[in-house]
Amino acid sequence: MNANFIPRWYATLGPIGYFPASGTAASAATLMLLWLLPSTSSWLFFAIIGLCYSLAYCCIQKNLVFYKHEDPSEIVIDELIGTLITFCALPLTPLTLILGFILFRFFDISKFGPVGWMEKVPGASGILLDDLVAGLLSNLVLRLIVHLYGS
After folding, report:
1. How far is residue 138's CA from residue 89's CA, in Å, rounded to a whole number?
2. Under a CB-based contact definition with an 8 Å cutoff, are residues 131 and 81 in contact?
């Protein structure tokens, strides 16, 4: 087995990074994962995000030499992390999952404000930071909606 297989598999979430609309597919797969997982404490959720982020940074950095683009579409672990951040410390209901998915994809695709600024950071940091900020913005908007209208 090639030494780069596991880091590349993690960075691309296996075959998901090779799907059409791979970022959207990775976010949708994360929704399914969230729906299937039992409710966890906010601290455990933060720890999972931190672990995923740390591993992602290492795996992306290791794999960037294989791609011709600064932010290859095959690398989708950043979408998983951004989607997780979107729902951190929020109730997971069908409505919040749908709204959060739409919000995250909107911020990630539009590169609104600070999301676009973060994308300009070179290397693995930039690949991860734009989705981290898109997830934070999505979380804040979703939190406001939940506060105003309930879960």
Report:
1. 13
2. yes
Give pLDDT tens digits along the chain (151 positions). Answer: 677 789 999 999 999 999 999 999 999 999 998 988 767 778 888 899 999 999 999 999 998 888 877 889 999 999 999 999 999 999 999 999 999 999 999 999 999 999 999 989 999 999 999 999 999 999 999 999 999 997 6
Burial of 86 (0-12, 13-18, 19+ CB in 10 A): buried
Neighbours of 114 (CB within 10 A): 15
Spatial separation of the C-alpha atoms in residues 84 and 79, rounded to whole Å: 8
Q: d(Cα 39, Cα 82) in Å, to the nearest integer?
A: 19
Give the H/E segment covering residue 74: none
Distance between CA atoms of residues 106 and 102, nearest Å: 6
- What CA–CA distance (Å, rounded) separates 127 from 142? 23
What is d(CA 2, CA 81) in angstroms, rounded to the nearest whole number?
A: 26
DSSP result, 128-149: HHHHHHHHHHHHHHHHHHHHHH
- 69 φ/ψ sector (left φ>0, alpha ψ -120 to 50, else beta): beta
